[in-house]
Amino acid sequence: MMQQDGGRERINIAIDGPAGAGKSTVARKVAEQLGYVYIDTGAMYRAVTLSALRSGIDPLDGPEIASHAASLDIRLLPGEQGQRVLLNGEDVTEEIRSREVTQNVSQVAANGAVRRLLAEKQRRLADRKGVVMDGRDIGSHVLPDAELKVFLTASASERALRRYREIGDAQGVSLEQLEREIEERDRMDRERDVSPLVCASDAVVMDSTAMTIEEVCSAIVSLSRTKLAEAK
């Protein structure tokens, strides 16, 4: 149900899609343009992964990971350069994007107890509407009642190229290796037992392979305004 904030009508927007499709960048910009709150759910899973790795916990140790996640205080705060991620009060915004975290986050995200824990946190954040939330299962599981759902995708080769341009040679990985890793992560996300990566039946599918970030954002903002008009 659409809500109002000081007379201004608001909806929730769910943006799902595979790794490297540009969800976080797009969601953040859409939120800025609409004056909404941006919530990067992937950052929450990355924070759990980072903390587990620091503590020497095997990402495949389901019970231990779940217990560890329950003990963490993860907060998402707005910042001048985008969303900041605090882990037990420490700013880990940069650390959660490390290659080690990226290679292990899918295993942590496949943990049912962790997903239930974080999904509940995410739903509470969206209670008042006016939220743009991105992830793998937002429209299908976390916010199934979101007024606008977008499934943002792109070819694996294009997603690998975007990631390569992002990290350059800093992490010593080739474009070909990145593409293989993205394809493997896609497989893991699709095949996990708990809240797998799926396109919600009522989502708008948007292939960004040949689109600029600005074009994707403009299209989503336009869709959101149409949804608002329909709800009046």
TrEMBL record:
It catalyses: dCMP + ATP = dCDP + ADP; CMP + ATP = CDP + ADP. GO terms for molecular function: kinase activity. Keywords: ATP-binding, Cytoplasm, Kinase, Nucleotide-binding, Transferase. Residues 13-223 form the Cytidylate kinase domain. Its main location: cytoplasm. Gene3D superfamilies: P-loop containing nucleotide triphosphate hydrolases. It is an enzyme of class 2 (transferase). Its EC number is 2.7.4.25. Residues 1-11 have a biased composition (Basic and acidic residues). Residues 1-21 are annotated as: Disordered. InterPro entries: Cytidylate_kin (IPR003136), Cytidylate_kinase_dom (IPR011994), P-loop_NTPase (IPR027417). Pfam families: Cytidylate_kin. ATP binds at residues 17-25. It comes from the Bacteria. It is found in: Cytoplasm. Belongs to the cytidylate kinase family. Type 1 subfamily. HAMAP family: Cytidyl_kinase_type1. PANTHER family: CYTIDYLATE KINASE, CYTIDYLATE KINASE/PANTOATE-BETA-ALANINE LIGASE. This is Cytidylate kinase. It comes from Paenibacillus cisolokensis. The gene is cmk.
